[in-house]
Structure formats: structure tokens, C-alpha cells
Amino acid sequence: MNTIARRLRAALAPLVTTGVVLALWYLGSYVLIDADRRFLLPPPHEVVRVAADPDNLTELLAGLGLSAQVAGLGLLLAALLGLLLAALMSQARWIERAVYPYAVLLQTVPILALVPLFGFWFGFGLPSRVLTCVLIALFPITANTLFGLRSTDPALHDLFTLHRASRWTRLVKLQLPAALPSILTGLRISAGAAVIGAIVGDFFFQQGQPGLGQLIYLYPRRLQSELLFAAVGLASLLGLAVFWLFGAVARYATAWHDSQQRTPSSGPDAAR
To answer: Looking at residue 123, what DSSP letter applies?
Structure first.
């Protein structure tokens, strides 16, 4: 019974929040904005009605599919490259000193300043959009993986040294399993960043099949505010879906870890 009540409370909280947001949205549309300016904040049911039109829905879903494809490819490449860089840096300090500053540099350089260069160098199609996602998503994976690899229990390192384990054996059988929670945390962060990269890249590469970013760019110029809100909503739902997906993967893949063994209801403060 307690489990059912806990699940109901967990489901009720986001529903209440959604209801409050919709109420405020309707308040802004019908009370705070005049009727002749309501196009600036169309009510939710108008957004749904216009977006549900077959032609508009086809365009929105096609844009969502392209953005999801770009984000997925960018995240996959960023994960592979980030894991490789972190593994190399964990094996030698001189590699970390040589590579890590450039990883930080990619995080600090405004990505919008590099997007036009990618267009000049690689064209304005899929490769440039995927590269934008990779650069945005790379650092969280690299940093979290390196932290996890370096945080392995020293006693276990001593045990592997006692058995004269090679660097490869130590990395594969000790460091990578111990770093799995950190790796999945990095992937969870980078997944949301990859969606942002897909939207940003598509927003600036105004060629080829339009993704959500290009639709977000076009709809205000057509004064199609309902479709603009629908495109922004789909982009947000894509980011949430990816974040929840990797959150679920992290919970199941690291169920053995201490961070997953204790829930708020079982802690010392549960009765308070």
C-alpha cells in the first residue's frame, strides 16, 4: 500500500505542476493580453489545434525526426570520442596535460562562433549539424568519465598490482566498471546537450530538410505563432525524453551502486 501511495504521489506532482503552468498560460492569453495581440501568446488548445492539422503535423514530425537523428548521431560520436580520450588521459598524466586543456577550450569557446565555420568547411548538411552536437556534448562525457576512472578505490588498485595485472586488465576489469555511474551521468548530461546542439545547428544551417531548429527560425517570420509554440514544445519533449531515457538506463545499469541502494524513504530522515 505504501508503494502504491508513493507512486501516486510521484505521478501527481508533475500533473499538478502541468496544471499550474496551463492555468498561467491561459491567464496570460485571455487576461493579460488583448484579443488583437493574442497571437503573441496563443492559448494551449489553439496550439494543439493548429499543430494537429495533417500538413502541419507532418512537417513538425519530419523536423522532429531529423533533429532526433542528428542528436543521436552526435551523442554516439561524442560518447565514443569522450570515452577514448578519458581512458587515454587516465593512463598517463602527460596525456591529460596535453589533451585536457583543449577539451576545456571546446567547452568555453562560443559554439555559435564556430557554426558558420563548419558550414564553410563541411557544407550545410548533416555532417556540420552532427559536428555541432559532438562539440557541445563531448566535454561532459570526457570530464565525468575521467573523474570516475580516477576515483577507483586505491585498495583495489593495490590488489590488481599484487596480482601483476596489466594496464589493459586494470582498465577493463577495474576502472571502467567502477566508473560506470560517472560515465552514465556524463551521458545523461550530454544527451540533453546533444539535443540543444541539433536545434542550434539546424537553426543556423538553413539548407536541406528542415529540422526543428529551422522550423523555429521560419515560423515567426511567417507569423505562425501556434506552430512556433508547437515546435518549441516538441524540442523540449525531445530533450526530456532523452534525459529520462538515460536516467532509466543509469538506474538499471548501476543498481548495484551505493547511490541506488538508498532511497529518501529508507533513509534516517524518512520518518520526519
So the answer is: -
Provide the residue range defining the domain that includes 253.
42-259
Task: Output the pTM of the full model.
Answer: 0.79
Number of domains in the chain: 2
Taking a C-beta distance cutoff of 8 angstroms, is the pair 60, 50 a contact?
no
Residue 76 covered by a domain: yes
Q: Which H helix or E strand runs over 271?
A: none
Dihedral of alpha carbons 112, 118, 119, 125, sign = negative
Regarding whether 78 and 28 lie in a shared domain, the answer is: no
With cell 569522450, the residue in question is 82
On whether the CB atoms of residues 256 and 237 are closer than 8 A, the answer is no
Residue 270 has phi, psi (to 5 degrees) of -65, -35
At 69 the three-state DSSP class reads: helix
Domain assignment of residue 189, yes or no = yes
Residue whose entry in the numeric block shows the C-alpha cell 594496464: 167
**Around Cβ 64, how many Cβ atoms within 10 Å?**
18
Q: Are residues 28 and 134 in the same domain?
A: no
CA 39/CA 33 separation, integer angstroms: 9
pLDDT tens digits, 26-47: 888 888 887 778 778 888 888 8
For the segment 213-268, what is each residue's pLDDT rounded down to a tens digit?
Answer: 888 888 888 888 889 999 999 988 888 888 888 878 877 776 655 554 544 444 44
Asked if residue 24 is part of any domain, the answer here is yes
Q: Which helix (H) or strand (E) holds 146?
A: helix 126-150
